[in-house]
Design brief:
The complex is a heterotrimer of chains A (167), B (290) and C (771). Chain A has 167 residues and is α+β, with helices and mostly antiparallel strands. Chain A contains five helices and five strands. The longest helix of chain A is centred in the last third of the chain and has 16 residues, at 150-165. With 290 residues, chain B is of the alpha+beta class. Chain B is built from eleven helices and 14 strands. Classes of the chains: A alpha+beta (167), B alpha+beta (290), C alpha+beta (771). At the B-C interface, helix 11 of B face helix 4 and helix 21 of C.
């Protein structure tokens, strides 16, 4: 395979999204963010900057937080993706992290929220009893223009405590 | 801000990578993508082919031969931070890497990508330079080694040919009990440093310095090794030593840009060097815990 | 009736947002919709010699490209519609839809591509060949005033396009007297709005029904509807603007932009739905900013630090076009006195064009700049006289016994500026008490002994809120028995739906969660103004309050007929009208609603108009003035210039609080924005007016590590409107920069540092320390 002229710029990609196997045909240049939003109609993943600086598009790729605007859809062939749409229980009950955001006014316009939720999902899986400073460091790559962050930090701390109890 | 059209390939061997990059024009190698993808989205980079290294086995290993440590080019920054081997043998690497970006970027950003991107403010080239690391490079023409010292050609341009691939970096860890310090100043947590300083110190039993390494980032187009300062450090142990070292840095050539002027960067060199050296000294003086 | 007003209540908006199911503009899917991208000027000022579309049109998937000629041949004009009455600038400053031959700022739209998707549309944008002839550009507004300056437009004959003068009393004698005086030069910069969601618009024209439907991420849906109606000469009933979920506004979405009109035009022309979503680079280049001001003021005061006069001038960077009125310069000129007594005052703000994107209000709307000037003045007087900074402020604040206080200036609507409530000194004293202000100096001495530089700052602010002319609320009990509110107020994250539902629920005896609120759909309420100037709780809140009350009264009246009970014996609870003594005698809302829609041939009861609904347009008789006192404690690393904010307190008077959860959120977010203005946010341009900041790596928004926890204390006095509410959206922002910078200056007292600019960078602080 030395002559790339022979390679098509469209590929079929198989991936698992929120526990469901999906197959999708994508142009190679299509970002994972656009693929989720416009090919798979999962518009909960938001695009805020497209240069990897705002964190709104964060999803989990094989359990690791990743900026989906800096990821090509073709790159995640075979991967397992978790987006904000996959957080609540199948019966509709919110995930404790989502509930904590609601109870602590952790969101205002809600545009950055999916990215924050996904970043915190990864973080809280690694740090069950974080300090406020640790939460602040963990979400430092997620910009929010509305809240001033305090309520987001409070949400994360409360979620951690609820998750510890349910463990 | 959508990428221009390109072909994406994901070879599964180094051999196959080398063939593709030797026969195609305008191939961009995608490692972690944390620096390349923004440039592609902004169409500052318009590649014909994007070559993804993530499928190649064995490129993310951290190995210690007893003599030297080798880190595969595709080792993620997160893997560096979590590497017990590095925490024990080269804590400088871990400390500096933990200051890179944010968790989402550290999860995916790679050491090879960082070295090849060669941002003047990036942490990893500074650390690699402080350790006198050597980069292993392959092409269909053969293999070669390149000292990190010789990596920067000019601004954000490494001395690597388009048909070459960085496979790993190698360095000899300092002896147990060495001291290290890495300090950087950035406007916000996770931002690229305006100025950074990496220091390594080894003390003799008499507590005098027998080995020293001092490297600055954010100052020129690549990491700046401060040879004169290192010589001042050797064989000295007086308390005013650090001041003397900082004095010796006054004449280093420094660039400025819209983020920080030459004058301010020069000022920060002194501040960061002082902090890095002090910490390195303190740590070198602590008893070795094995 | 139990009031729900004042209770902590979690928001109704959260659930769809938290599940990722809320529909923002870019989430809307319409079959056959195509996407748009704009070719934008790379030059601050240039002539367009030629445009070659051919290579772009050849790209598969490209539908068409629109230029100036297409706009003019359709509309007969290239002018952005605006309210003529407001317009004060010379003709060359009129905003245009697309330029014919001259571009006047980097980012100005030149052409719009329509293509299958955004990727292809951007390919086409890159393929368009334009031959430009660069022209000299004005970058710094001070340079624009020089005699030898070039002009922003070829048709200009000056760059100073206006000036706003606020004046009363007689300043000059105060400066020729025994009084103390000083002069002060201040440089202020505010960056952009940067909501996390950019702008965006979808237009879908139905040629068969000649009906235009537009979704826009805007703060002014009704204004957009009105503009489209005029431009297309289509009756309001045939143009519908719908507000999707909006990811923040902060001023960036309060203007009507060319992109909204061009997308609508193109949809009408092509007869298919079209979408344009602003990307972040476009937001940097083409969304409004607030930017640069240079102030020179002189201050006269007596030996007790009591102000006698403030006079001065400011130069305001207006950008290349005037979008409607001189609102920032106006606010700046008029807002300096704020909560203080300034016996004599004269301020002129010169409006100077530059070859940059237009400036109109970002959160705070000129008040942050005016406040910074006033609070810097207070600190200077304190330093000059060796009197405590808080004490100086207390001496000059308007005392509570002088409320209502008439400022000798007229508000923008021509009415007198009357502060009808507020206890500014009480608020300040409370701030000093809860912050242990008096004990700080001993902490400071102790820190200094350890080589640490800590400082405290205190500031006061006052903001005009609840600006009219009106906002509407339609409250309706439907035949299903459920309650719906429709309003022209624009929700963009402020919890608008929750607080309106709370107000309505109080009147109708329901839980707020039982009420649906629809904001910014022009088909459901004919008139509306929108979300800006901290106005919606005052205007829409009172409208919904009054409308709900009338619906309640009607429900009681109709039930009284049907149940044959006096209305006084009835009350509303659980979705029913019930007898106070015997709850088995009741009528569900659904039955009352049906009764109000009438039955064929049978008249409605006397005095009952059809429909169990009421629309009220609330027109505030006077503005509501919110005020606050802020205290910040900071530590400065004098080696690097890094400032950390260790403590931040807000004592806030926004009148009656409808929901403390939301109000506190607004204050915290506002302070965060102000911290950005104090320390981080800088929209840089080079000397040729080329932006040097176009990414979030260069434009530093505050992150989770930059904003401290903010302690909030409420100090409410009621405004003179039915609910007693004042605005809050901008209140947190306005004195945050002044407070932080005062604290930084205080921390650096040993170096005798005086700070005369915002934002202040670590680099600049190091420079000042070493001066």
């Amino acid at each position: 395979m030395t002559d790339t002229e022979q390679i098509s710029t469209i590929s079929r990609v198989s991936l698992e999204v929120n526990g469901v196997s999906r197959e999708v045909e994508v142009e190679h240049r299509l970002t994972l963010a656009d693929c989720l939003r416009h090919k798979l109609n999962l518009t909960g993943t938001h695009i805020g900057c497209e240069h990897g600086a705002c964190g709104s598009c964060t999803v989990l790729v094989d359990k690791r937080a990743r900026r989906s605007c800096l990821t090509l859809a073709v790159q995640v062939e075979g991967a397992s993706i978790l987006t904000v749409e996959g957080l609540a229980e199948p019966n509709g009950d919110l995930h404790p992290l989502q509930t904590a955001f609601h109870n602590n006014h952790g969101l205002q316009c809600g545009f950055c929220t999916p990215g924050l939720l996904m970043t915190l999902m990864e973080f809280l899986s690694e740090n069950q009893d974080p300090t406020e400073d640790e939460v602040r460091e963990a979400i430092s790559g997620n910009l929010c223009r509305c809240t001033g962050y305090q309520s987001i930090v409070g949400s994360a701390i409360q979620a951690a405590s609820i998750l510890r109890q349910s463990r | 801000m959508k990428p221009s059209a390109f072909k994406y390939v994901k070879p599964d061997s180094i051999r196959s990578v080398l063939e593709i990059i030797s026969t195609n024009e305008n191939v961009k190698i995608l490692a972690g993508g944390q620096s390349l993808m923004p440039m592609i989205n902004m169409r500052f980079v318009l590649p014909d082919v994007v070559l993804d290294l993530s499928q190649i086995p064995g490129m993310n290993e951290i190995k210690f031969s007893g003599e030297s440590i080798k880190i595969g080019a595709m080792t993620r920054q997160r893997e560096i931070i979590e590497s017990k081997l590095l925490i024990k043998n080269c804590p400088l690497f871990v400390e500096a890497t933990s200051l890179i970006g944010h968790r989402q970027t550290r999860n995916w950003g790679t050491i090879g990508g960082s070295l090849c991107h060669l941002d003047p403010s990036a942490e990893l080239p500074v650390v690699a330079r402080a350790l006198d690391a050597v980069i292993h490079i392959e092409s269909i023409r053969g293999k070669r080694k390149l000292a990190v010292a010789d990596l920067p050609l000019f601004y954000m341009t490494p001395a690597i040919e388009p048909d070459e691939l960085v496979t790993e970096i190698e360095f000899t860890p300092w002896s147990a009990g060495h001291g290290w310090g890495f300090f950087e100043f950035s406007r916000r947590v996770g931002d690229f440093a305006i100025v950074s300083a990496a220091a390594l110190i080894e003390l003799e039993r008499s507590k005098t310095v027998c080995r020293a390494s001092l490297v600055l980032g954010g100052v020129g187009s690549g990491p700046v090794r401060c040879k004169e300062a290192e010589e001042i450090l050797l064989n000295y142990s007086e308390p005013d030593l650090i001041e003397k070292v900082c004095d010796s840095l006054r004449n280093i050539e420094v660039g400025g840009d819209s983020q920080a002027s030459t004058k301010y960067r020069r000022h920060l060199i002194g501040v960061m060097t002082k902090r890095a050296l002090r910490t390195a000294f303190e740590r070198a003086q602590q008893p070795v815990i094995s | 009736m139990d009031t729900l007003i004042g209770e902590n209540r979690n928001r109704l908006e959260d659930f769809t947002l938290l599940r990722g199911q809320a529909i923002f503009l870019d989430d809307i899917k319409i079959p056959l919709m195509k996407e748009c991208a704009f070719l934008r000027s790379p030059h601050p000022h240039a002539l367009i010699k030629s445009i070659d579309l051919a290579p772009a049109l050849k790209i598969p998937g490209v539908e068409t490209i629109f230029l100036y000629d297409d706009i003019v041949s359709f509309f007969g004009t290239n002018q952005m519609p605006f309210d003529q009455g407001d317009f004060v600038a010379p003709k060359w400053s009129y905003p245009i839809i697309l330029p014919q031959y001259e571009v006047c700022f980097v980012g100005e739209a030149i052409a719009m591509v329509v293509a299958e998707n955004r990727y292809i549309a951007e390919d086409a944008v890159n393929a368009i060949r334009v031959d430009y002839e660069p022209l000299p550009a004005v970058s710094d507004c001070r340079d624009g005033l020089r005699n030898d300056s070039c002009f922003v437009h070829q048709s200009s004959n000056r760059n100073e396009i206006g000036s706003i003068i606020a004046t009363y009393g007689d300043c000059d004698p105060c400066f020729n007297s025994e009084l103390f005086s000083f002069s002060l030069s201040l440089k202020q910069h505010r960056g952009g709005a940067h909501p996390m969601e950019g702008r965006g618009v979808i237009a879908s024209y139905d040629p068969k029904n000649k009906f235009m439907c537009v979704w826009s991420s805007t703060q002014k849906p009704h204004k957009l509807r009105n503009v489209l109606s005029e431009l297309f000469q289509m009756e309001e009933e045939y143009v519908r603007v719908i507000l999707p979920e909006v990811g923040g506004g902060f001023g960036a979405k309060a203007a009507i932009y060319p992109e909204e009109l061009i997308v609508a035009f193109a949809s009408r022309k092509l007869g298919c739905p079209l979408k344009w979503t602003e990307d972040r680079r476009e937001h940097f280049l083409s969304a409004i900013q607030e930017r640069d001001q240079y102030w020179s003021v002189e201050v006269a005061f007596d030996s007790n630090g009591i102000l006698a006069a403030i006079r001065g001038t400011a130069i305001h960077d207006q950008g290349a076009y005037t979008l409607a009125e001189f609102n920032i310069p106006y606010n700046c000129a008029y807002a300096v006195p704020g909560p203080y007594i300034v016996p004599n005052y004269h301020m002129e703000v010169k409006v100077v064009e530059t070859n940059k994107v237009a400036t109109v209000p970002v959160r705070g709307a000129g008040f942050p700049e005016a406040n910074f000037v006033m609070e810097r003045i207070m600190d200077h007087i304190a330093n000059d006289l060796g009197i405590d900074r808080a004490e100086i402020r207390r001496r000059n604040l308007i005392p509570v016994d002088r409320i209502p206080y008439e400022v000798p200036l007229k508000a923008r609507d021509g009415k007198p500026m009357i502060y009808d409530s507020g206890d500014f000194i009480g608020c300040l004293d409370h701030a000093l008490k809860v912050s242990s202000y008096q004990e700080f100096s001993s902490q400071q001495q102790a820190a200094l002994a350890e080589g640490r530089y800590i400082g405290i700052g205190v500031s006061n602010m006052l903001k005009v809120t609840g600006r009219g002319p009106f906002e509407g609320g339609m409250v309706k009990i439907s035949r299903t028995g459920t309650v719906t509110i429709a309003t022209g107020a624009a929700a963009m994250g402020q919890g608008t739906k929750t607080f309106l539902a709370t107000i309505c629920a109080t009147e109708l005896g329901l839980c707020p969660s039982q009420i649906k609120v629809i904001t910014g759909d022009t088909s459901l309420i004919m008139h509306g103004v929108g979300g800006f100037a901290s106005r919606q709780a005052v205007t829409a809140g009172n409208a919904v309050h009054l409308a709900s009350r009338q619906v309640r009264q009607k429900a009681l009246l109709v039930s009284s007929h049907i149940l044959e009970r006096p209305a006084d014996d009835l009350y509303l609870a659980d979705g029913k009208v019930q007898d106070k003594k015997d709850s088995t005698i009741n009528l569900p809302f659904s039955e009352i609603s049906k009764a109000c829609s009438g039955a064929k041939g049978y008249p409605l009861p006397d005095g009952v108009a059809p429909g169990l609904e009421k629309t009220v347009y609330f027109e505030p008789k006077n503005l509501a003035y919110a005020n606050a006192s802020h205290v910040a404690e900071v530590e400065v690393d004098t080696d690097t210039g890094y400032v950390s904010i260790n403590k931040y307190l807000v004592i806030n008077d926004s009148g009656r609080i409808i929901n403390p959860v939301i109000v506190n959120g607004q204050i915290r977010g506002g302070v965060a924005h102000g911290i950005g203005n104090a320390l981080l946010e800088w929209m840089g341009y080079d000397g040729d007016a080329q932006p040097v900041v176009t990414t979030f790596a260069e434009y530093l928004l505050p992150t989770s590590n930059d904003v401290p926890n903010i302690e909030i204390y409420h100090f409410p006095t009621l405004a003179k409107n039915p609910i007693g509410v004042k605005g809050v959206g901008e209140v947190g922002t306005i004195c945050a920069a002044a407070t932080v910078i005062s604290a930084v200056e205080n921390a650096l007292r040993p170096f005798n540092v005086q700070i005369s600019e915002a934002p202040i960078s670590p680099e600049r602080l190091v420079e000042l320390i070493h001066q």
